[in-house]
Amino acid sequence: MNGNNPYAGAPGVAGAGEPEPVDLSPDQERALRTAVAGIVDRTESYLPDGYIVGSELSVGTGGATATVAVNPPAGHPVSAGFAPDPEELETGIEDTDAEEVAKGLAASAAVQVMNAVGDGDLTPTAK
Questions:
Q1: What predicted TM-score, i.e. pTM, was given to this entire model?
Q2: Which fold has domain 26-117?
Q3: Which of 6, 42, 47, 76 is least surrounded by Cβ atoms within 10 Å, i.e. has the fewest?
Q4: Is 50 left (phi over 0), alpha (psi -120 to 50) or beta?
Q5: pLDDT of residue 9
């Protein structure tokens, strides 16, 4: 049992096989918040009124994660999550990546509404 205890080791030091805790600098956190707010704004610009778009940021031992979600007026909510690298936060999230996430969320939310109200016969592209 020597060393096999999950509580063994110095406090604040990650054990073998555990990720190191990640702390964002204030500038990195601000950059992530700005990038996510931009994705929320872009997503809202593709959708008509009635769709609710929101975001959530969290920083844990695995690093920073961001989730942007859309609650359509009918159907199930859709979301996209991503975990940018700390270097990516320094340089800024690529505009094309933010655009891709926003368009994907808007399209998925629209499909949810179409499925909920029975507008057209949609053929799923994958199962």
A1: 0.72
A2: Double Stranded RNA Binding Domain (3.30.160)
A3: 6
A4: left
A5: 57
